[in-house]
Specification:
Chains A, B: Belongs to the OMP decarboxylase family. Type 2 subfamily. Chains A, B: Its EC number is 4.1.1.23. The structure is a homodimer. The first copy, chain A, has about 270 residues and is an alpha/beta fold. Helices cover about 45% and strands about 15% of the residues of chain A. An eight-stranded parallel barrel of chain A has the order 1-2-3-4-5-8-9-10, surrounded by six helices. A two-stranded antiparallel sheet of chain A has the order 6-7. The relative contact order of chain A is 0.15. The model of chain A has no long low-confidence stretch (mean pLDDT about 95). The interface between A and B is large, with 57 and 57 residues.
Chain lengths: ~270, ~270
Amino acid sequence: MTTKQLVAQIIKKKSFLCIGLDVDLAKIPPHLLQEEDPIFAFNKAIIDATHHLCVAYKPNTAFYEAYGIKGWKSLEKTINYLNEKHPEIFTIADAKRGDIGNTSTMYAKAFFEDLAFDSVTVAPYMGKDSVEPFLAFENKHTIMLALTSNEGAFDFQTKTVDGKELYKQVLETSKSWKNSENLMYVVGATKAEYFAEIRKIIPTSFLLVPGVGAQGGNLQDVCKYGLSENIGLLINSSRGIIYASKDENFANSAAEKAKELQTQMEVILNN
Amino acid sequence: MTTKQLVAQIIKKKSFLCIGLDVDLAKIPPHLLQEEDPIFAFNKAIIDATHHLCVAYKPNTAFYEAYGIKGWKSLEKTINYLNEKHPEIFTIADAKRGDIGNTSTMYAKAFFEDLAFDSVTVAPYMGKDSVEPFLAFENKHTIMLALTSNEGAFDFQTKTVDGKELYKQVLETSKSWKNSENLMYVVGATKAEYFAEIRKIIPTSFLLVPGVGAQGGNLQDVCKYGLSENIGLLINSSRGIIYASKDENFANSAAEKAKELQTQMEVILNN
């Protein structure tokens, strides 16, 4: 998918919501556990109920790998379902991968070719030759961790490196990498005050923003400083939407939560 | 596996060799492609021929994920084979994972419980709460990236952070994390001159050292500065061993290459 197509979808749906499909068998409605593939059954119901309210889905691979081959099959069924039924939706493999050159190419093949995601999240620690192999794939997007939403972000990311915080060095440096136009960045909503600074470095890049809702981030604050001329934001909510209820109507409850966020986004986009 | 058991195995085998099982179907002997599971057939042959010469095996997950569910099955068969036939051998899932707390726990379950590896590699960028969930598993080891063997290591890892290189900050900081005795670190052999400095910060921690052989690192240099009182080194070689030949005798060729390294290690351990 091209960035232009993503922006067109945002304008059409009046939404820049991304729904995180982080499926924990201990948290889904108990009646689904009787299904042959409870994880996929859950995802399918959530997708059917919310696809008109969001522009992206983001399964976090940890939740699938934890169930071994069965989990990997659920992930495959989920991405196939999305690509068949809703090809206009932007798909994100939240995998936070990164390795030396040739090995990163194998990860890129896993997520861009074998599973056919539109994008994958990567970690920056190993530098240029660990990320460029992902950037080489046409019409695919590589979403690099910049400033994450957790407490541990303050351990290294905000430390000063040669006069500038590490996350800013990561943003600056990555701009010179080959095919850097295929880069997006993860910036946590819990650090809304940082968005103005970030936009000085990368004025138009799309930012994937976790941390709204359950983690305490505020949508209005993020948009105030983070919106760009091409919108440039994908706001992720996982637990706040998908675990809205545990009863048989869980998918409707999820849709209600998604609608709340979409409505707020519509107001913001209209202003 | 405890660190004590790992050290005992090193002393018994006179080897601190780790063999990287990075299986690329384009590089394995062509006759194996007729097998039902070529990747596992390759790994099994390599393990059968080399298990007495090494103390650890390290499949890099990228090479398995690139083949989707089939690849994940090959990985599962490989770790099961190792745990059944050679339970004394230290196993490393080279996965370079890392995510926020609860999600890291899911990754830890994937590699420590579902696949029953002894250890997993992780990335430090997201800080303490992304790594501590791995450290909570008893008799399991978390191998954190410190200074990697690739060119991109100079993008961020060697940059000065508050008066000290980032990789040193990572080493220092991680020592205060809960259960930090379960930490090992990745330090590339291509940067042998850094080992003396690293040993000042972490005098006894085990270091997983990629980059000997194909990437140009030198075993003697690494050992000169990197050996600790409990040995503290696992030297990894992947391509230099497993792709020694493409003919029907590939496993013997791999064993010869492994034997060369083991013999050098025996000389070093005897001195």
